[in-house]
Specification:
The complex is a heterodimer. By secondary structure, chain A is mainly alpha-helical. Chain A has 7 helices and 1 strand, in the order H-H-H-E-H-H-H-H. The radius of gyration of chain A is 19 Å and the shape is globular. In chain B, 67% of the residues lie in helices and 15% in strands. Classes of the chains: A mainly alpha, B alpha+beta. At the A-B interface, helix 1 and strand 1 of A face helix 3, strand 1 and helix 4 of B. Strand 1 of chain A pairs antiparallel with strand 1 of chain B, so a sheet runs across the interface.
Chain lengths: 195, 129
């Protein structure tokens, strides 16, 4: 029994409920489809209905996690850190995207897809700071970073393609996170600490 | 005999372990709770691998000793048990881990000292007269 491992268990619970990432990743894809006004997404009500469906799916999955794996409340310090990390993440993604490629005068205007580049860095940092970084995060978000950083994104604004790539990465990582989560919290045949 | 006296004195210098906290199931429960604000019964059961009966028994002992607080309520007609570690529980858990780490460091130093003593004894036997 390792102290550090036990203390990280709560962090694993918070960060690796990966099934929640499926509707979250779907939100990225929905945003891209809505921006492009593809097919039925020309109509606002379709977009809003899909948004509601994703929200409903998120709530149902969260309830399923609570029902099957229990509930944990973070400490005030953890909540403050999460809030600060979220603010920093939004700043980095927005600011970084504008810096790498935008119409702003101070932009570097590189032929890269800025959203996947900044998003990948932020996600890796979030998992690392939360103490839940796994090899598959490095592989998935590393691939996302490389795909975004390749200097092939000439021409029109590739943000929507970037959103789809981010959504796919979030969903893939979510599935792998859930498998890791189930291994940590799944039922054991021989409880290790049963007295 | 100097060897026995050495062992007796090192036993005297060993810290008195907290028997309530030292039990592996209870130590795991307290360590988990010390990293969160609170947790429910199901999370503790999943995270420790204890059976319901064992977990209940450990939590009762910890509550009697004032190391945890247990809040039982009904949420939408379903029983919900939430456990929070107390300040005393947090202090005793941290102290216990420090004692275990000190013991481990003592054991590692003793083992290294004995290995180097054996090595120097072996090399002095090999040296020609």
């Amino acid at each position: 029994m390792e102290r550090h491992q036990l203390e990280r268990t709560a962090a694993i619970y918070a960060h690796l409920r990966g099934a929640l990432a499926i509707p979250a990743g779907g939100l990225f894809v929905l945003a891209a489809l809505g921006n492009e006004q593809v097919g039925p997404f020309r109509h606002d009500w379709v977009f809003l209905a899909c948004l509601a469906a994703l929200g409903g799916a998120y709530a149902l999955i969260a309830r399923a996690y609570r029902r099957h794996y229990g509930r944990v409340s973070p400490t005030a310090e953890q909540q403050l850190r999460s809030g600060a990390a979220l603010v920093l993440a939004v700043t980095v993604v927005l600011g970084g995207s504008l810096l790498l490629r935008s119409r702003a005068g101070w932009s570097l205007d590189l032929p890269v897809n800025a959203i996947p580049v900044t998003f990948a860095l932020v996600m890796l940092a979030a998992y690392a700071i939360g103490g839940a970084l796994r090899p598959h995060h490095g592989i998935v978000y590393g691939t996302l970073f490389v795909a975004g950083a390749l200097p092939v994104w000439h021409g029109e604004d590739p943000s929507n393609a970037g959103l789809v790539m981010c959504g796919a990465a979030v969903i893939v990582c979510g599935v792998l996170d859930h498998l890791a989560f189930a291994r940590t919290f799944g039922p054991r045949e021989q409880p290790a600490l049963d007295a | 005999m100097p060897e026995l006296e050495g062992r007796a004195s090192s036993r005297r210098s060993m810290p008195e372990l907290d028997r309530l906290v030292h039990e592996p199931g209870r130590l795991a429960i307290l360590t988990l709770l010390s990293s969160v604000a609170d947790a429910d019964f199901l999370f503790l059961q999943r995270a420790t691998g204890l059976t319901k009966g064992n977990l209940s028994s450990h939590l009762s002992k910890l509550e009697e000793a004032g190391l945890v607080r247990i809040d039982k309520r009904f949420v939408r007609k379903k029983p919900q048990t939430t456990v929070t570690i107390s300040r005393l529980g947090r202090e005793r858990t941290a102290r216990h881990w420090e004692q275990l780490e000190a013991l481990r460091d003592q054991a590692v130093s003793a083992s290294q000292a004995s290995q180097s003593a054996r090595r120097s004894a072996a090399s002095s036997r090999v040296r020609p007269a």
